[in-house]
From TrEMBL:
InterPro entries: AAA+_ATPase, ABC_carbohydrate_import_ATPase, ABC_transporter-like_ATP-bd, ABC_transporter-like_CS, P-loop_NTPase. GO terms for molecular function: ATP binding; ATP hydrolysis activity. GO terms for cellular component: plasma membrane. SUPFAM superfamilies: P-loop containing nucleoside triphosphate hydrolases. It is found in: Cell membrane. This is ABC transporter related protein. Keywords: ATP-binding, Cell membrane, Membrane, Nucleotide-binding, Repeat, Translocase, Transport. Residues 3-239, 255-499 form the ABC transporter domain. Gene3D superfamilies: P-loop containing nucleotide triphosphate hydrolases. It is a peripheral membrane protein.
Protein backbone atom coordinates (compact mmCIF):
# COMPACT_ATOMS: atom_id res chain seq x y z
CA UNK A 1 0.00 0.00 0.00
CA UNK A 2 1.34 3.42 -0.96
CA UNK A 3 1.13 6.20 1.64
CA UNK A 4 1.12 9.84 0.67
CA UNK A 5 0.86 12.90 2.91
CA UNK A 6 0.19 16.18 1.12
CA UNK A 7 0.61 19.57 2.76
CA UNK A 8 -0.08 18.32 6.29
CA UNK A 9 -0.28 21.28 8.67
CA UNK A 10 -1.04 21.01 12.39
CA UNK A 11 -1.19 23.97 14.75
CA UNK A 12 -1.44 24.15 18.53
CA UNK A 13 -2.43 27.75 19.13
CA UNK A 14 0.40 29.92 17.77
CA UNK A 15 2.75 26.92 17.49
CA UNK A 16 2.97 25.36 14.04
CA UNK A 17 4.01 21.78 14.81
CA UNK A 18 3.73 20.62 11.18
CA UNK A 19 4.14 23.12 8.35
CA UNK A 20 2.83 21.87 4.97
CA UNK A 21 4.66 18.54 5.12
CA UNK A 22 4.75 16.27 2.07
CA UNK A 23 5.80 12.62 2.42
CA UNK A 24 5.48 9.59 0.17
CA UNK A 25 6.22 6.01 1.27
CA UNK A 26 6.13 3.24 -1.32
CA UNK A 27 5.26 -0.43 -0.64
CA UNK A 28 8.36 -2.42 0.22
CA UNK A 29 10.23 0.67 1.40
CA UNK A 30 11.67 1.80 4.74
CA UNK A 31 11.35 5.57 4.76
CA UNK A 32 13.10 7.24 7.67
CA UNK A 33 11.70 10.43 9.16
CA UNK A 34 14.77 11.98 10.78
CA UNK A 35 14.78 14.94 13.13
CA UNK A 36 15.50 16.07 16.64
CA UNK A 37 12.99 15.73 19.47
CA UNK A 38 10.42 18.47 19.02
CA UNK A 39 10.93 18.65 15.25
CA UNK A 40 7.33 17.55 14.62
CA UNK A 41 7.86 13.91 13.63
CA UNK A 42 5.56 12.31 16.20
CA UNK A 43 2.88 14.97 15.67
CA UNK A 44 2.86 14.13 11.97
CA UNK A 45 2.46 10.43 12.68
CA UNK A 46 -0.29 11.11 15.23
CA UNK A 47 -2.15 12.93 12.45
CA UNK A 48 -1.65 9.90 10.21
CA UNK A 49 -2.90 7.56 12.95
CA UNK A 50 -6.04 9.61 13.62
CA UNK A 51 -4.99 10.80 17.07
CA UNK A 52 -4.86 14.40 15.79
CA UNK A 53 -6.85 16.08 13.06
CA UNK A 54 -4.81 18.08 10.54
CA UNK A 55 -5.69 21.75 10.07
CA UNK A 56 -4.68 21.53 6.42
CA UNK A 57 -3.60 18.83 3.96
CA UNK A 58 -4.71 15.31 3.13
CA UNK A 59 -3.75 11.66 3.61
CA UNK A 60 -3.91 9.27 0.65
CA UNK A 61 -3.62 5.46 0.58
CA UNK A 62 -3.09 4.04 -2.90
CA UNK A 63 -4.09 7.50 -4.22
CA UNK A 64 -7.44 7.44 -2.38
CA UNK A 65 -8.02 10.36 0.06
CA UNK A 66 -8.72 9.29 3.66
CA UNK A 67 -10.55 10.89 6.58
CA UNK A 68 -9.68 9.35 9.96
CA UNK A 69 -11.85 10.33 12.92
CA UNK A 70 -9.66 8.25 15.24
CA UNK A 71 -7.14 5.41 15.44
CA UNK A 72 -9.87 2.84 14.74
CA UNK A 73 -10.39 4.32 11.28
CA UNK A 74 -6.62 4.35 10.62
CA UNK A 75 -6.28 0.71 11.68
CA UNK A 76 -9.26 -0.30 9.55
CA UNK A 77 -7.57 1.36 6.56
CA UNK A 78 -4.40 -0.69 7.11
CA UNK A 79 -2.20 1.58 9.20
CA UNK A 80 -0.44 0.21 12.29
CA UNK A 81 1.77 2.02 14.77
CA UNK A 82 4.44 0.61 17.06
CA UNK A 83 4.67 3.22 19.80
CA UNK A 84 7.83 4.21 21.66
CA UNK A 85 6.00 3.54 24.94
CA UNK A 86 4.27 0.21 24.45
CA UNK A 87 0.46 0.18 24.46
CA UNK A 88 0.20 -3.20 26.21
CA UNK A 89 -1.62 -4.31 29.37
CA UNK A 90 1.02 -6.00 31.57
CA UNK A 91 -1.35 -8.45 33.33
CA UNK A 92 -2.83 -9.72 30.06
CA UNK A 93 -1.33 -12.54 28.02
CA UNK A 94 0.16 -11.96 24.58
CA UNK A 95 -2.95 -13.38 22.90
CA UNK A 96 -5.27 -11.21 25.03
CA UNK A 97 -3.28 -8.07 24.14
CA UNK A 98 -3.36 -8.92 20.45
CA UNK A 99 -7.14 -9.49 20.53
CA UNK A 100 -7.93 -6.40 22.62
CA UNK A 101 -10.40 -4.19 20.77
CA UNK A 102 -10.86 -6.83 18.05
CA UNK A 103 -12.21 -9.68 20.13
CA UNK A 104 -13.52 -12.80 18.48
CA UNK A 105 -16.24 -14.87 20.13
CA UNK A 106 -17.34 -18.47 19.76
CA UNK A 107 -20.88 -19.52 18.91
CA UNK A 108 -21.82 -19.36 22.60
CA UNK A 109 -20.70 -15.73 22.87
CA UNK A 110 -17.57 -16.64 24.80
CA UNK A 111 -14.21 -15.03 24.05
CA UNK A 112 -12.41 -17.22 21.51
CA UNK A 113 -8.91 -17.14 22.98
CA UNK A 114 -7.79 -20.01 20.79
CA UNK A 115 -8.35 -17.86 17.72
CA UNK A 116 -6.11 -15.22 19.29
CA UNK A 117 -3.45 -17.80 20.09
CA UNK A 118 -3.59 -19.11 16.53
CA UNK A 119 -3.16 -15.60 15.11
CA UNK A 120 -0.11 -15.01 17.31
CA UNK A 121 1.43 -18.34 16.31
CA UNK A 122 0.79 -17.71 12.62
CA UNK A 123 2.42 -14.27 12.56
CA UNK A 124 5.27 -15.35 14.86
CA UNK A 125 6.06 -18.29 12.57
CA UNK A 126 5.93 -16.09 9.48
CA UNK A 127 8.56 -13.69 10.83
CA UNK A 128 10.58 -16.03 13.01
CA UNK A 129 9.44 -14.48 16.30
CA UNK A 130 9.71 -16.59 19.43
CA UNK A 131 6.62 -15.48 21.35
CA UNK A 132 4.45 -17.62 23.61
CA UNK A 133 0.77 -16.63 23.13
CA UNK A 134 0.02 -17.53 26.77
CA UNK A 135 2.91 -15.61 28.34
CA UNK A 136 2.01 -12.64 30.54
CA UNK A 137 3.33 -9.43 28.97
CA UNK A 138 4.78 -8.25 32.31
CA UNK A 139 7.04 -11.33 32.35
CA UNK A 140 8.51 -10.67 28.89
CA UNK A 141 11.79 -8.85 28.13
CA UNK A 142 11.39 -5.42 26.54
CA UNK A 143 12.51 -6.65 23.12
CA UNK A 144 9.85 -9.39 23.11
CA UNK A 145 7.19 -6.89 24.25
CA UNK A 146 8.00 -4.85 21.17
CA UNK A 147 7.47 -7.92 19.01
CA UNK A 148 4.04 -8.27 20.60
CA UNK A 149 3.30 -4.69 19.49
CA UNK A 150 4.35 -5.63 15.94
CA UNK A 151 2.21 -8.81 16.02
CA UNK A 152 -0.72 -6.71 17.25
CA UNK A 153 -0.38 -4.36 14.27
CA UNK A 154 0.06 -7.19 11.76
CA UNK A 155 -2.93 -9.09 13.17
CA UNK A 156 -5.09 -6.22 11.94
CA UNK A 157 -3.68 -6.51 8.41
CA UNK A 158 -1.56 -3.37 8.64
CA UNK A 159 0.14 -2.63 5.33
CA UNK A 160 1.61 0.68 6.46
CA UNK A 161 3.66 0.37 9.66
CA UNK A 162 4.92 3.32 11.69
CA UNK A 163 7.78 2.74 14.13
CA UNK A 164 7.98 5.73 16.49
CA UNK A 165 11.46 5.93 18.13
CA UNK A 166 11.35 2.12 18.49
CA UNK A 167 14.88 1.61 19.87
CA UNK A 168 14.62 3.94 22.86
CA UNK A 169 14.25 1.07 25.36
CA UNK A 170 16.24 -1.64 23.59
CA UNK A 171 19.72 -3.05 24.09
CA UNK A 172 22.05 -2.94 21.06
CA UNK A 173 21.35 -6.62 20.36
CA UNK A 174 17.59 -6.04 20.51
CA UNK A 175 18.04 -3.06 18.19
CA UNK A 176 19.87 -5.26 15.67
CA UNK A 177 17.04 -7.80 15.87
CA UNK A 178 14.47 -5.07 15.28
CA UNK A 179 16.36 -3.93 12.17
CA UNK A 180 16.20 -7.50 10.86
CA UNK A 181 12.44 -7.61 11.53
CA UNK A 182 11.94 -4.30 9.70
CA UNK A 183 13.77 -5.67 6.67
CA UNK A 184 11.55 -8.78 6.73
CA UNK A 185 8.45 -6.60 6.86
CA UNK A 186 9.78 -4.55 3.96
CA UNK A 187 10.34 -7.73 1.91
CA UNK A 188 6.74 -8.75 2.62
CA UNK A 189 5.61 -5.56 0.87
CA UNK A 190 4.85 -3.35 3.86
CA UNK A 191 5.42 0.40 3.64
CA UNK A 192 7.41 1.38 6.73
CA UNK A 193 7.87 4.79 8.33
CA UNK A 194 10.80 4.75 10.76
CA UNK A 195 10.94 7.75 13.11
CA UNK A 196 14.25 8.34 14.87
CA UNK A 197 16.98 10.83 15.74
CA UNK A 198 19.78 8.24 15.83
CA UNK A 199 22.06 8.58 12.82
CA UNK A 200 23.63 5.12 13.08
CA UNK A 201 20.23 3.41 12.77
CA UNK A 202 19.12 5.61 9.90
CA UNK A 203 22.11 4.78 7.75
CA UNK A 204 21.78 1.07 8.55
CA UNK A 205 18.19 0.41 7.56
CA UNK A 206 16.63 3.30 5.57
CA UNK A 207 15.93 3.25 1.84
CA UNK A 208 15.11 6.96 1.82
CA UNK A 209 15.50 9.70 4.44
CA UNK A 210 13.35 12.79 4.93
CA UNK A 211 14.72 15.34 7.39
CA UNK A 212 12.36 17.49 9.45
CA UNK A 213 13.41 20.60 11.35
CA UNK A 214 11.10 22.91 13.30
CA UNK A 215 8.00 21.31 11.84
CA UNK A 216 9.02 21.55 8.18
CA UNK A 217 10.75 19.27 5.69
CA UNK A 218 14.23 20.69 5.09
CA UNK A 219 15.53 18.06 2.71
CA UNK A 220 15.90 14.47 1.65
CA UNK A 221 19.06 12.40 1.91
CA UNK A 222 20.46 9.09 0.80
CA UNK A 223 21.43 6.39 3.33
CA UNK A 224 24.96 6.79 1.98
CA UNK A 225 25.11 10.32 3.42
CA UNK A 226 27.63 10.74 6.22
CA UNK A 227 26.64 11.36 9.83
CA UNK A 228 28.02 14.89 9.48
CA UNK A 229 25.81 15.58 6.44
CA UNK A 230 22.71 14.25 8.19
CA UNK A 231 23.49 16.17 11.37
CA UNK A 232 23.95 19.43 9.50
CA UNK A 233 20.57 18.95 7.82
CA UNK A 234 18.95 18.31 11.20
CA UNK A 235 20.53 21.35 12.87
CA UNK A 236 21.07 23.75 9.99
CA UNK A 237 24.82 24.09 10.45
CA UNK A 238 28.00 22.00 10.55
CA UNK A 239 28.30 19.95 13.76
CA UNK A 240 31.31 18.27 15.38
CA UNK A 241 30.12 14.77 16.26
CA UNK A 242 33.32 13.44 17.82
CA UNK A 243 34.04 13.90 21.53
CA UNK A 244 37.66 14.97 21.92
CA UNK A 245 39.30 14.16 25.23
CA UNK A 246 42.80 13.39 26.48
CA UNK A 247 43.70 10.51 28.79
CA UNK A 248 42.36 11.12 32.31
CA UNK A 249 44.60 12.86 34.84
CA UNK A 250 43.44 11.78 38.27
CA UNK A 251 43.30 14.27 41.11
CA UNK A 252 42.93 13.76 44.85
CA UNK A 253 39.16 14.26 44.75
CA UNK A 254 37.26 11.01 45.23
CA UNK A 255 33.69 9.75 45.34
CA UNK A 256 33.30 6.41 47.07
CA UNK A 257 29.97 4.57 47.11
CA UNK A 258 29.73 1.43 49.27
CA UNK A 259 26.88 -1.10 49.65
CA UNK A 260 24.30 1.43 48.46
CA UNK A 261 20.69 0.30 48.58
CA UNK A 262 17.59 2.28 47.60
CA UNK A 263 14.05 1.07 48.30
CA UNK A 264 10.68 2.54 47.39
CA UNK A 265 7.81 3.29 49.77
CA UNK A 266 6.64 -0.34 49.60
CA UNK A 267 10.08 -1.75 50.39
CA UNK A 268 10.90 -2.91 46.84
CA UNK A 269 14.65 -2.74 46.17
CA UNK A 270 15.49 -0.35 43.33
CA UNK A 271 19.26 -0.11 43.80
CA UNK A 272 20.76 -3.30 45.20
CA UNK A 273 24.12 -3.35 47.00
CA UNK A 274 25.95 -1.03 44.59
CA UNK A 275 29.61 -0.13 45.21
CA UNK A 276 32.03 1.87 43.04
CA UNK A 277 34.59 4.68 43.09
CA UNK A 278 35.12 7.70 40.84
CA UNK A 279 38.40 9.58 40.90
CA UNK A 280 38.72 13.25 40.14
CA UNK A 281 39.54 13.75 36.47
CA UNK A 282 37.51 10.82 35.11
CA UNK A 283 34.02 10.23 33.77
CA UNK A 284 32.14 7.15 34.91
CA UNK A 285 29.14 6.48 32.69
CA UNK A 286 26.28 4.51 34.23
CA UNK A 287 24.76 2.60 31.30
CA UNK A 288 21.83 0.25 30.87
CA UNK A 289 18.34 0.03 29.47
CA UNK A 290 16.04 2.59 31.07
CA UNK A 291 14.42 1.38 34.29
CA UNK A 292 17.24 -0.68 35.78
CA UNK A 293 17.98 1.52 38.78
CA UNK A 294 20.08 4.23 37.14
CA UNK A 295 17.56 6.99 37.86
CA UNK A 296 17.28 6.05 41.53
CA UNK A 297 21.07 5.81 41.87
CA UNK A 298 21.51 9.34 40.50
CA UNK A 299 18.78 10.66 42.80
CA UNK A 300 20.38 8.94 45.80
CA UNK A 301 23.67 10.70 45.01
CA UNK A 302 21.77 13.99 44.97
CA UNK A 303 20.01 13.36 48.29
CA UNK A 304 16.65 13.05 46.56
CA UNK A 305 15.81 9.47 47.58
CA UNK A 306 14.35 9.09 51.11
CA UNK A 307 15.06 5.38 51.69
CA UNK A 308 18.82 4.93 51.31
CA UNK A 309 21.28 2.75 53.20
CA UNK A 310 25.00 2.26 52.68
CA UNK A 311 27.59 4.97 52.23
CA UNK A 312 28.27 7.84 49.80
CA UNK A 313 31.51 9.59 50.70
CA UNK A 314 32.75 12.64 48.79
CA UNK A 315 36.28 13.70 49.70
CA UNK A 316 35.86 11.70 52.92
CA UNK A 317 32.58 13.35 53.99
CA UNK A 318 29.47 11.15 54.34
CA UNK A 319 26.46 12.33 52.28
CA UNK A 320 23.88 9.67 53.19
CA UNK A 321 21.42 11.18 55.63
CA UNK A 322 22.12 14.76 54.60
CA UNK A 323 19.48 17.09 53.17
CA UNK A 324 19.52 18.16 49.53
CA UNK A 325 20.74 21.59 50.64
CA UNK A 326 23.64 20.03 52.55
CA UNK A 327 24.55 17.79 49.59
CA UNK A 328 24.62 20.82 47.28
CA UNK A 329 26.76 22.71 49.78
CA UNK A 330 29.19 19.76 49.78
CA UNK A 331 29.89 20.57 46.12
CA UNK A 332 27.39 18.54 44.08
CA UNK A 333 26.31 19.75 40.66
CA UNK A 334 23.19 17.82 39.66
CA UNK A 335 21.65 17.73 36.17
CA UNK A 336 18.33 15.86 36.59
CA UNK A 337 16.92 13.36 34.13
CA UNK A 338 13.75 15.39 33.54
CA UNK A 339 14.69 19.06 33.29
CA UNK A 340 11.08 20.25 33.04
CA UNK A 341 9.95 18.32 36.12
CA UNK A 342 13.02 18.61 38.34
CA UNK A 343 15.43 21.14 36.84
CA UNK A 344 13.50 24.24 35.85
CA UNK A 345 10.43 26.32 36.64
CA UNK A 346 8.98 27.00 33.21
CA UNK A 347 7.15 30.20 34.15
CA UNK A 348 10.25 31.68 35.82
CA UNK A 349 12.69 33.76 33.79
CA UNK A 350 16.07 32.57 32.56
CA UNK A 351 17.71 34.74 35.24
CA UNK A 352 15.53 33.29 38.02
CA UNK A 353 16.24 29.72 36.94
CA UNK A 354 19.98 30.36 36.88
CA UNK A 355 19.94 31.08 40.63
CA UNK A 356 17.17 28.69 41.73
CA UNK A 357 19.35 26.89 44.30
CA UNK A 358 21.66 29.80 45.00
CA UNK A 359 19.38 32.06 47.07
CA UNK A 360 20.55 31.15 50.57
CA UNK A 361 23.16 33.88 50.87
CA UNK A 362 25.65 36.18 49.07
CA UNK A 363 26.13 37.23 46.36
CA UNK A 364 22.47 36.89 45.33
CA UNK A 365 20.80 37.44 48.73
CA UNK A 366 21.86 39.88 51.47
CA UNK A 367 19.90 40.46 54.68
CA UNK A 368 17.01 38.49 53.21
CA UNK A 369 16.76 40.65 50.09
CA UNK A 370 17.35 39.38 46.56
CA UNK A 371 20.17 41.31 44.87
CA UNK A 372 18.69 41.84 41.42
CA UNK A 373 21.74 43.57 39.96
CA UNK A 374 24.05 40.72 41.00
CA UNK A 375 21.58 38.14 39.70
CA UNK A 376 21.13 39.85 36.35
CA UNK A 377 24.87 40.39 35.85
CA UNK A 378 25.48 36.71 36.61
CA UNK A 379 22.66 35.68 34.23
CA UNK A 380 24.02 37.74 31.34
CA UNK A 381 27.49 36.24 31.85
CA UNK A 382 26.12 32.70 31.79
CA UNK A 383 23.91 33.35 28.76
CA UNK A 384 27.04 34.40 26.87
CA UNK A 385 29.32 31.70 28.29
CA UNK A 386 26.90 28.84 27.61
CA UNK A 387 25.55 30.22 24.33
CA UNK A 388 21.95 30.19 25.61
CA UNK A 389 19.74 31.35 22.73
CA UNK A 390 17.11 33.58 24.31
CA UNK A 391 15.50 36.94 23.65
CA UNK A 392 16.72 38.09 27.04
CA UNK A 393 17.34 37.03 30.62
CA UNK A 394 13.74 37.96 31.50
CA UNK A 395 12.30 35.46 29.00
CA UNK A 396 10.36 32.61 30.68
CA UNK A 397 12.56 29.54 30.41
CA UNK A 398 9.58 27.49 29.22
CA UNK A 399 9.71 29.37 25.89
CA UNK A 400 13.24 28.17 25.12
CA UNK A 401 14.05 25.12 23.00
CA UNK A 402 14.96 21.89 24.76
CA UNK A 403 18.66 22.38 24.08
CA UNK A 404 18.68 25.90 25.48
CA UNK A 405 16.70 24.84 28.54
CA UNK A 406 19.32 22.16 29.19
CA UNK A 407 22.06 24.78 28.84
CA UNK A 408 20.36 26.83 31.56
CA UNK A 409 20.45 23.81 33.90
CA UNK A 410 24.05 23.06 32.99
CA UNK A 411 25.12 26.70 33.45
CA UNK A 412 23.58 26.82 36.92
CA UNK A 413 25.07 23.53 38.08
CA UNK A 414 28.56 24.09 36.69
CA UNK A 415 28.78 27.59 38.16
CA UNK A 416 29.01 26.47 41.78
CA UNK A 417 32.18 25.40 43.62
CA UNK A 418 32.04 21.86 42.23
CA UNK A 419 33.43 18.74 43.87
CA UNK A 420 31.23 16.27 41.96
CA UNK A 421 29.05 16.46 38.83
CA UNK A 422 26.16 14.03 38.34
CA UNK A 423 24.45 14.41 34.96
CA UNK A 424 21.46 12.13 34.27
CA UNK A 425 20.56 11.82 30.58
CA UNK A 426 22.25 15.17 29.89
CA UNK A 427 21.46 15.19 26.15
CA UNK A 428 17.95 13.75 26.16
CA UNK A 429 15.60 15.71 23.93
CA UNK A 430 18.20 18.23 22.73
CA UNK A 431 19.44 18.93 19.21
CA UNK A 432 22.72 17.71 17.80
CA UNK A 433 24.32 21.15 18.12
CA UNK A 434 23.48 21.35 21.82
CA UNK A 435 24.76 17.79 22.33
CA UNK A 436 28.10 18.91 20.93
CA UNK A 437 28.23 21.81 23.42
CA UNK A 438 27.08 19.75 26.44
CA UNK A 439 29.64 17.01 25.80
CA UNK A 440 32.39 19.61 25.58
CA UNK A 441 31.45 21.14 28.95
CA UNK A 442 31.31 17.73 30.63
CA UNK A 443 34.80 16.92 29.36
CA UNK A 444 36.06 20.32 30.56
CA UNK A 445 34.65 19.56 34.02
CA UNK A 446 36.44 16.21 34.05
CA UNK A 447 39.68 17.85 32.90
CA UNK A 448 39.41 20.29 35.82
CA UNK A 449 39.98 17.30 38.15
CA UNK A 450 36.35 16.83 39.22
CA UNK A 451 34.70 13.38 39.44
CA UNK A 452 31.92 13.11 36.86
CA UNK A 453 29.07 10.60 36.71
CA UNK A 454 26.96 10.53 33.56
CA UNK A 455 23.82 8.39 33.41
CA UNK A 456 22.98 7.57 29.79
CA UNK A 457 20.90 5.02 27.90
CA UNK A 458 22.64 6.03 24.66
CA UNK A 459 25.49 3.58 24.08
CA UNK A 460 27.26 5.88 21.60
CA UNK A 461 27.28 8.62 24.23
CA UNK A 462 28.51 6.24 26.92
CA UNK A 463 31.44 5.13 24.80
CA UNK A 464 32.28 8.67 23.66
CA UNK A 465 32.18 10.34 27.08
CA UNK A 466 33.21 7.60 29.49
CA UNK A 467 36.63 6.68 30.79
CA UNK A 468 34.92 3.71 32.42
CA UNK A 469 31.40 2.33 31.97
CA UNK A 470 29.33 0.81 34.77
CA UNK A 471 26.45 -1.28 33.45
CA UNK A 472 23.36 -1.79 35.63
CA UNK A 473 20.68 -4.44 35.31
CA UNK A 474 17.71 -4.80 37.67
CA UNK A 475 19.27 -2.52 40.23
CA UNK A 476 22.64 -4.28 40.42
CA UNK A 477 26.03 -3.61 38.88
CA UNK A 478 26.76 -6.14 36.13
CA UNK A 479 30.32 -4.87 35.76
CA UNK A 480 32.58 -1.84 35.42
CA UNK A 481 34.64 -1.93 32.22
CA UNK A 482 36.84 0.38 30.11
CA UNK A 483 35.10 2.56 27.52
CA UNK A 484 37.07 0.65 24.88
CA UNK A 485 34.97 -2.46 25.58
CA UNK A 486 33.30 -3.67 22.33
CA UNK A 487 29.71 -2.58 21.79
CA UNK A 488 28.41 -6.14 21.51
CA UNK A 489 29.90 -6.99 24.91
CA UNK A 490 28.32 -3.87 26.43
CA UNK A 491 25.01 -4.82 24.87
CA UNK A 492 25.09 -8.28 26.43
CA UNK A 493 25.98 -6.74 29.79
CA UNK A 494 22.90 -4.51 29.45
CA UNK A 495 20.89 -7.74 29.26
CA UNK A 496 22.40 -8.91 32.57
CA UNK A 497 25.32 -11.03 31.34
CA UNK A 498 28.55 -10.64 33.32
CA UNK A 499 31.50 -9.05 31.43
CA UNK A 500 33.59 -12.22 31.19
CA UNK A 501 30.59 -14.25 29.98
CA UNK A 502 29.56 -11.48 27.59
CA UNK A 503 33.05 -11.45 26.07
CA UNK A 504 32.87 -15.23 25.55
CA UNK A 505 29.43 -14.98 23.90
CA UNK A 506 30.44 -12.02 21.73
Amino acid sequence: MKLELRGITKRFGALVANDHIDLTVEPGEIHCLLGENGAGKSTLMNVLYGLYQADEGEILLDDVPQAFAGPGDAMAAGIGMVHQHFMLIPVFTVAENVMLGHEQTSSGGRLDLEAGRAKVREIAARFGFHVDPDALVEDLPVGVQQRVEIIKALSRDARVLVFDEPTAVLTPQETDELMTIMRQLKESGAAIVFITHKLREVREVADRITVVRRGAVVGEASPTASDAELASLMVGRAVELTVHKDAPKHSESLLEVTDLQVTDSRGAVLVDDVSFQVRGGEVLVVAGVQGNGQTELAEALGGLQPNVTGSIRLDGAELVGRSVRQVLDAGLGFVPEDRNEDGLVGSFSVAENLVLDRTDGPPFVRRGALQLRARDTFAREKVDEFDIRTQGIDTPVGRLSGGNQQKVVLARELSRDLRLLVAAQPTRGVDVGSIEFIHKRIVETRDAGIPVIVVSTELDEAVALGDRIMVMYRGRVVGIVPATTPRDVLGLMMAGIAPQDAADVA
